[in-house]
Design a protein that fits this description.
- With 143 residues, this protein is mainly α.
- It contains three helices and no strands.
- Helix 1 (23-54) runs antiparallel to helix 2.
- The termini are far apart.
């Protein structure tokens, strides 16, 4: 009597990317993430706005709050793009779309804030050429 051992069944792994996320979960996750990100973004911007208001004209505190806000917005943009990548890995197309919309919005806001910061802090003018001699009226050294 020969007894054959049953073959072990192959274990099925259910990775998030093994099949497409159902539509209901996909849309729900996309809307939920978008709303949570919007709430967090607005709360943090309100916090930095209140810090600027509380500075009461102290330029160093105001500048520190502006720089911290720019840095936080950059990190938030990176986090939003990472979440979009995870949604893409999970094969959730509507969540990817909502995350890319959020990332686009944050990128536009970051660009505007950085442009405003750069306009408030222009680069210093270049130093004059050492061979430069100013032209004074009546000096006879003018070209």
């Amino acid at each position: 009597m020969t007894s054959a051992l049953p073959e072990p069944s192959p274990r099925r792994r259910w990775w998030p990317w093994s099949r497409r996320t159902p539509l209901g979960r996909d849309v729900g996750a996309g809307v939920l993430l978008f709303m949570v990100e919007a709430a967090v973004f607005l709360a943090v911007l309100f916090d930095y706005g209140m810090e600027t208001w509380a500075a009461q004209g102290q330029e160093d505190r105001i500048e520190a709050a502006r720089v911290a806000e720019l840095a936080w917005t950059r990190h938030f943009l990176i986090a939003t793009l990472v979440l979009a990548g995870l949604a893409l890995l999970s094969r959730a197309p509507w969540t990817v779309v909502s995350q890319l919309l959020a990332a686009g919005t944050v990128a536009v806001l970051l660009t505007l804030a950085q442009h405003d910061y750069d306009r408030r802090h222009p680069a210093p003018p270049p130093p004059p050429n050492p061979a430069y001699t100013p032209c004074y009226s009546g000096s006879g050294r003018c070209n």
